[in-house]
Amino acid sequence: MHFLVYTRTGCHLCEDAWTLLEDAQESHGFSLEAIDVDSDPELVTQFGECVPVVVVDGKVRFRGQVNPVLLKRLLN
After folding, report:
1. Which of 11, 14, 45, 66 could disulfide-link to 52, CB 3.0 to 4.6 Å?
2. How much of the chain is helix, strand and coil, in % rounded to 5?
3. How far lies 51's CA from each of 14, 28, 58, 69, in Å?
4. β-pairing, 2-7 with 31-36?
5. What is the pLDDT of residues 44-68, one digit of tens each?
């Protein structure tokens, strides 16, 4: 599985999501990547203030926050 997190510097929800995903990565071994939306004007237009956005294998799974219960279901 590949997790891609669209994030932004200084976003506490993004930091919380990243920490949760890093913890899950240790036990499930998926790849984890972050992209700062502010690095690309098109991403700013696409996501605006709605970060983090977590994409798993090409499909958006979480917006705004990562639900730990749904994450566990997804990984199992």
Report:
1. 14
2. 45, 30, 25
3. 7, 24, 17, 19
4. parallel
5. 999 988 999 999 999 999 999 999 9
Distance CA 21, CA 71 (A): 9
Across 2-68, where does the E strand assignment appear? 2-7, 31-36, 53-56, 59-63
Delimit the domains of the chain by residue range: 2-75
- What CATH code would you report for 2-75? 3.40.30.10
pTM, 2 dp: 0.92
| Residue 72 confidence (pLDDT) | 95
Place of tokens 């237009």: 45
Distance, CA of 59 to CA of 56 (rounded, Å): 5
What is the Cα 9 distance to its own chain's centre? 13
- Backbone dihedral angles phi then psi of residue 14, each to the nearest 5 degrees: -65, -45
